[in-house]
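It would be a great kindness if you could assist me with a short task in structural biology. The matter concerns a single protein, recorded as an amino acid sequence and a row of C-alpha cells. Kindly check, if you would, that the fold set down in the C-alpha cells agrees with what the sequence suggests. Thank you for your consideration; the sequence and its C-alpha cells are set out here:
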Amino acid sequence: MRIEVRPLVAVVILFIALAVLLGGSTVVGALTGTPVTETQVEPEIETVELKDGSELWPYTSRSQSVSDRTLALNVIVYGDATTTRELLQTEGFGDVTWEEMDDNETDIAPTEVTFNQSGLGLGDADGAIRYTYVEDPDGNEYWLDESYQLKDGTYLGARNHLRAYEDPHAGQWTVFQGHTEHWDWFQARHNVHSIEESQSVVELHFVDNPLVEDLVRERWGNDRGSDSDGWATVVDLDEEFATLLLGAILIASIQTARMREFIHDDDVKLVYQGAFVVGSLVALMMFVRFGAIWAEGQFPNIYPNTVAAMFFPFLAIGMPIAVYLIARPLDRLPAFAAGSSGFFIALLVDYTYLQVTALPLDTLLQHVALAIALGFIAAGASKTARDPETDLGYVRTGALLWAVAIIIPLLVHIPII
C-alpha cells in the first residue's frame, strides 16, 4: 500500500523562509510602526580626501544618514562639472552615449510609490533619491542628492545607471555611483547585479579619449555592498582641450531530453507535450520582456511603471493558467517537472538575454518558490491527479504558494505609517 504525502508541510516551511528573507523588516515595521533603523546607533562617517581638500563619504544612502547606506561611489571626474556632463552625453566620445533619465524612468522608492487600481505596487513614482555626504575645503557640510541621472539601456530590460553628484563648492569635480541593473518582474523592482561592470563601462568611455589627461584607479576602501572592490576610477580632464573639442534562444530542447527519464520513449506525444509546457513559459517570459521594452520605446511619455503594470498580469496570471491547461495530458511527475523546470528555463533565457550573472539571495529564493508553485499546479492538473477521490490539493497548494511568493516582495512598496 502506497502512502501519498501531502505537500502542505513543505510549503508552510517555505512560506516561513520567504517571509523571513523577503518581508521580515517590512512586517516588523508594519506591526510596530517603527523602522528597524531607529534602534540603531548612528555610525561614524568615514570619508576619503579629494584633490581639492574636500572630504567625501564614498557611498550613497537612502536618507541623510550613513545608517541607510546603499551602494559604493565608484567613479570621480576632476574637471568642470558642466564639461563632464556634456562629455558623457555627446555622441562620438566613447562606445556608450549616455542618455539623461526622465523622472518617469527613475527607480521606484518604496516610500514614494502610488498604487494603481490593480493593487500592484507598480504605480507612478517620483524616483528613488540617493544622498551622499561632502565636507568642502571651508568646512561646510552637505548631504547631496543626485545632480542628474544617466542611463544606457531600457527601464524594463537591463541598463547601466549612473547617479551624478556635482561639487557643491566650486563645481570642479563630479562623483558617480554607477551600477548595472535589470527589471525583475517577480520582484516588481530593479535588481542591481553589478557595480564593477558599470564602472568598467564608464572607464571604456574615457579610455583613449583626447579630452582625458589621466585615468587611474585609486583605493577608497568602500568595498561593502554588491561586488564593489573598494577601488574608484579617477579621471582627470584636460580642461583647455575639452573646451575646444566639445561642440547591445530558446533552449527547451534541453528540458525535452531530460524529460525522457520520466516518460516512456515510445510515447513521443507526451515528450512533445512536456516541451510544449516549457516552451509556453519561455514564450510568455520573452513576450513580456520584449513587449514591454518595445512599448517603452514607442510611448516615451507613458511612465515605464504603467507599462510594467500592463504586462505584469501576463506573468502573474498567465503562467499558472498556461501550465494548468497545457500539462493536463501528462502524468503527475512529468507534469511537475515540466512546470517547475520550465519556469527556470524561462528565467535562464531571460537572464541570458539581459546578460545577468548574479542575483540576490532573496530573489533566488522567491524564484525557487515560484517554480515549485508552477510544478504543483501542473501536477494537480495532470490526468493522474484529477480523480476527486485521490485529490491531494496540488492546484490549491500551488496557487497559494504562487500568490504568496508574488505578493511578499510587493510589501516593500507599502509605506510604513
